[in-house]
Automatic annotation (TrEMBL):
This is RPC5 polymerase. Residues 134-157 are annotated as: Disordered. GO terms for cellular component: RNA polymerase III complex. Residues 432-671 form the DNA-directed RNA polymerase III subunit RPC5 C-terminal domain. Residues 134-143 have a biased composition (Basic and acidic residues). One of its GO terms (biological process) is tRNA transcription by RNA polymerase III. Pfam families: RPC5, RPC5_C. It comes from Corythaixoides concolor (Grey go-away-bird).
C-alpha cells in the first residue's frame, strides 16, 4: 500500500472524542447549536440539543432542572428559554500532551493518506448550570433575610475598618504567585472565546474540506519525510519515551556497558572503545562492533581517533589528554603530554623496543608520566626495556596498503614536528630494523644489506630469466586486438593525464621484499625499469575483468565511486599482484570505455558541491538482458536533465519502446 503524507490540514486537524451518548441525544447535524474555542489553550465548548420528544427523556426532571437554573422568570439571560432542559454543554480537555505520533488516515483506491493531528480533545459534560442554580438559591435566601432595620444599616455604615499597605513583592514571591493555581486559572479565564460555525456532515463546505485529507502531490519530492530507512521510519512513528530514558540507572564512569555502547553512533563507539583499550588490532575492533558493521566506515572513523603502529591501532594522544587538562602527577599541560606520548608512539613505529631512560631524557617529563605512556602500549621486560604489547599485524598491512601509506605520511609529519621540538639527534631518528616475527632486535649494517640483496638477485636470476622468456612467448600468441597500448607505463612515473594517479602502493618500510609494490620473487622488471610485455597484457586483462564485473553488478557509477571500489579490490589482492604496478585515472577511464560503457554527460547544477570525479558518470550501455533498450532511453533522459519526475520517465519509456510498462517493470529499470 502506498502511503502519502497530506499537509493541507497541518496544525489545523483535531480529533474530538465524544462520551457515550444517552438515548435521548444523537450526534447528528441538527444537534450542534453552537461552538466556541480558546486557541491557545486548545479548549472547546460545544452546545448540543437534547431530543425532548424522545420516550427516554424524563420531562418532569427536565422542567425541574430548568426551574432551578432560571427560576420562574424568562428573559434573555435564561439558560433554558423553553423551560425545559433541552440542551447540554460539553467542555474539552487534552487527552495527550504529545500528539506528534498520531495521525488521521484515509484509505482510497489502494492508497493510504495520513494527516498529522494537532490535538486530541476529550469532550465531557459541563455542569456550570448547577453553579447557576446554586447562585439563584443563595440570592433567594439573601432576599428572605433582608428584614433588617434602618438602625442596623446605620451602624453598619459607621463600622470601623482597618487599612493595610501591601509590602513590595520579592522575586521569589512573584514566582510563587505566577506558578499558583489561582493565577493560572485567572490567565486562562482572560483568554477570549472565539465563536465557530458548525457545518453538518453532508454540507458542501464539509465535503470540500474533507478533500484536504488527501495528499495534493503524489511525487516523492513533496513527501521527503517518507523517504527513510525502515528503522528510521519506525523511530519517527514510535520515538522512545523520555520518561523511560530518565529511569535508566547511570553506570559508574569507569564501567563500559556494551548494551549502552551499541546505541551510540559508530564514531562514538570507536572513540570510547579505543579510549578504554588504548591498543587494538583491527580484527578485534570489528568483532566488538558486531557482524553487520561496514569495515569501510570503521576505517574512516578509526583514523580520526587512533594512529597505526606496527599494523595495530593506538589511540591518539589528544583523545586521552583533551585540551585544558593537565597531568595528575606533575601538573604538566595536555599539550606537553601529547608531544611526549607522540614521541613514544613514533619510537614504536621504528622499533619494537623502547628504553624508558631515553624517552625521559628527550621529553624532559617526570618518570610517572613516561611510565603512563609506556604502559598504554607496551610491556616491561627485565633487562631489555619496554616491548610493544601486540605482535606486528601483517594481515591488516597486506589488505589495506592505502591506509598504511596514509598513516606513514602522517607519521612523517609528526616526525618533522618532533625534530623541531626536541632537537632530535641522528641516533634517535635511525630506525632499528628487525624481522616482524623476531622477539629480539636484529641490527644489520648497510653493507650487509647490500651484500644480502646482491646474493638474492643472483639466486633468483635464473628463475627470472625463465619467466621473462615465458612471458615473451605468451605475448606473441595473444590476439593483438585484445591488447591495450600501455607500453609507456613506467613504475613510479607520472601518468600521461593531468590527473593524479591513484595511490595503490604501500610504503616500503612495512613489508620487506616489496619493491614499488611488486614482489621480486613473483614479478620482474628490466634494467631500464619497464614492465615486460607479458606483464602489460596481464595488467590490461586484470583491469578489464574488474571493470566488467563491477559494471555488470551496478550498471551506473561515478568515477569517484569506481576508484573507491578499485582500491577495495586492490586491498583484497595478495602483495605483488600485477595491478599494483600503478593504474592512473586515465587508464581506468579508457578501460571503462573499452568494455562497452559510455560516459553520461549529466547536466548537474553549477552550484553543486560535488568533486570533479563525482560529476563524471559512466554507465553500461549493453548488458545483454531484456532491459537494454529501456536502460538506454533512461540514460538519454538523464543526459538532458539531472532531475526527472517519475511520470515523465514512464511516458518516455512507453513512447520509445512501444509498450506500456507496469509499475514493477519501471521500478526495476530505475533501480
Amino acid at each position: 500500500i502506498d502511503v502519502f503524507l497530506a499537509r493541507s490540514l497541518l496544525e489545523k486537524l483535531y480529533l474530538f472524542q465524544y462520551p457515550i451518548r444517552p438515548a435521548s441525544m444523537t450526534y447528528d447535524d441538527v444537534t450542534h447549536l453552537s461552538a466556541k474555542i480558546k486557541p491557545k489553550q486548545q479548549k472547546v465548548e460545544l452546545e448540543m440539543a437534547i431530543d425532548t420528544l424522545n420516550p427516554n427523556y424524563c420531562r418532569s426532571k427536565g422542567e425541574q432542572i430548568a426551574l432551578n437554573v432560571d427560576g420562574t422568570c424568562t428573559d434573555e439571560t435564561s439558560t433554558y428559554s423553553s423551560k425545559l432542559m433541552d440542551k447540554q454543554t460539553f467542555c474539552s480537555s487534552q487527552a495527550a500532551s504529545n500528539v506528534s505520533r498520531y495521525a488521521a488516515a484515509v484509505y482510497k483506491k489502494g492508497e493510504l493518506h495520513l494527516t498529522p493531528l494537532h490535538g486530541i480533545l476529550q469532550l465531557r459534560p459541563s455542569f456550570t448550570y448547577l453553579d447557576k442554580a446554586d447562585a439563584k438559591h443563595r440570592e433567594r435566601e439573601a432576599a428572605n433575610e433582608g428584614g433588617d432595620s434602618s438602625q442596623d444599616e446605620a451602624e453598619d455604615d459607621v463600622k470601623q475598618i482597618t487599612v493595610r499597605f501591601s509590602r513590595p513583592e520579592t522575586e521569589q514571591a512573584r514566582q510563587r504567585r505566577v506558578q499558583s493555581y489561582e493565577f493560572l486559572q485567572k490567565r486562562q479565564a482572560e483568554e477570549h472565546w472565539v465563536h465557530l460555525h458548525y457545518y453538518g456532515l453532508k454540507d458542501s463546505r464539509s465535503e470540500h474540506e474533507r478533500q484536504y485529507l488527501f495528499s495534493q502531490g503524489h511525487g516523492l519530492a513533496e513527501n521527503t519525510e517518507l523517504i527513510k530507512s525502515p528503522s528510521e521510519y519506525l523511530m519517527m512513528l514510535m520515538p522512545p519515551s523520555i520518561e523511560e530514558e530518565n529511569d535508566k540507572p547511570m553506570a559508574p564512569s569507569n564501567v563500559l556497558s556494551m548494551a549502552q555502547l551499541k546505541t551510540l553512533p559508530l564514531a562514538d563507539q570507536i572513540k570510547i572503545l579505543m579510549k578504554n583499550v588504548k591498543v587494538m588490532p583491527f580484527a578485534n575492533l570489528m568483532s566488538l562492533l558486531g557482524s553487520g558493521t561496514d569495515s569501510t566506515a570503521v576505517l574512516r572513523c578509526i583514523q580520526q581517533v587512533a594512529m597505526l603502529v606496527q599494523g595495530n591501532w593506538v589511540v591518539k594522544s589528544d583523545v586521552l589528554y583533551p585540551k585544558d587538562t593537565s597531568s595528575p602527577h606533575s601538573g604538566v599541560p595536555a599539550e606537553v603530554l601529547c608531544r611526549g606520548r607522540d614521541f613514544v608512539m613514533w619510537k614504536f613505529t621504528q622499533d619494537r623496543w623502547v628504553v624508558r631512560k631515553e624517552v625521559a631524557a628527550v621529553t624532559k617529563l617526570c618518570p610517572e608520566d613516561v611510565k603512563d605512556f609506556l604502559e598504554h602500549m607496551s610491556v616491561a621486560r627485565i633487562n631489555k626495556g619496554w616491548e610493544f604489547m601486540l605482535p606486528y599485524d601483517e594481515d591488516f598491512v597486506k589488505k589495506h596498503p592505502d591506509i598504511v601509506q596514509r598513516q606513514h605520511m602522517l607519521w612523517m609529519g609528526i616526525q618533522a614536528k618532533l625534530e623541531k621540538v626536541y632537537n632530535l639527534l641522528k641516533e634517535h631518528l635511525t630506525p632499528k630494523k628487525q624481522e616482524a616475527q623476531s622477539a629480539h632486535p636484529l641490527l644489520v649494517s648497510g653493507e650487509q644489506r647490500v651484500s644480502m640483496a646482491k646474493a638474492k638477485v643472483k639466486q633468483n636470476y635464473g628463475q627470472l630469466e625463465k619467466e621473462f622468456q615465458k612471458q615473451k612467448a605468451e605475448m606473441k600468441s595473444n590476439d593483438t586486438s585484445a591488447k591495450m597500448d600501455v607500453s609507456n607505463i613506467r613504475i613510479k612515473e607520472e601518468p600521461v593525464s593531468d590527473e593524479e594517479p591513484m595511490d595503490t602502493s604501500m610504503y616500503e618500510g612495512m613489508n620487506n621484499g616489496i619493491v614499488n609494490g611488486l614482489h621480486v620473487e613473483e614479478d620482474s622488471t628490466d634494467l631500464n625499469g619497464h614492465l615486460p610485455g607479458g606483464c602489460i597484457d596481464r595488467v590490461a586483462q586484470e583491469l578489464k575483468a574488474f571493470v566488467s564485473s563491477t559494471f555488470k553488478k551496478q550498471f551506473v557509477l561515478t568515477l569517484s565511486e569506481l576508484k573507491r571500489l578499485f582500491n577495495l579490490h586492490l586491498a583484497s589482492l595478495p602483495p605483488g599482484h600485477t595491478l599494483f604496478s600503478g593504474i592512473s585515472d586515465k587508464m581506468l577511464q579508457d578501460m571503462v570505455l573499452d568494455t562497452g560503457c559510455k560516459q553520461i554527460l549529466v547536466p548537474f547544477p553549477p552550484q553543486t558541491a560535488a568533486s570533479p570525479d563525482e560529476l563524471k558518470v559512466y554507465a553500461l550501455w549493453e548488458a545483454g538482458d531484456t532491459y537494454d533498450q529501456h536502460r538506454q532511453v533512461l540514460l538519454e533522459i538523464f543526459s538532458k536533465n539531472y532531475r526527472v519526475r517519475r511520470n515523465v520517465i514512464q511516458n518516455q519509456l512507453s513512447q520509445e519502446c512501444g509498450e506500456d510498462l507496469n509499475k514493477q517493470e519501471v521500478d526495476r529499470v530505475l533501480k
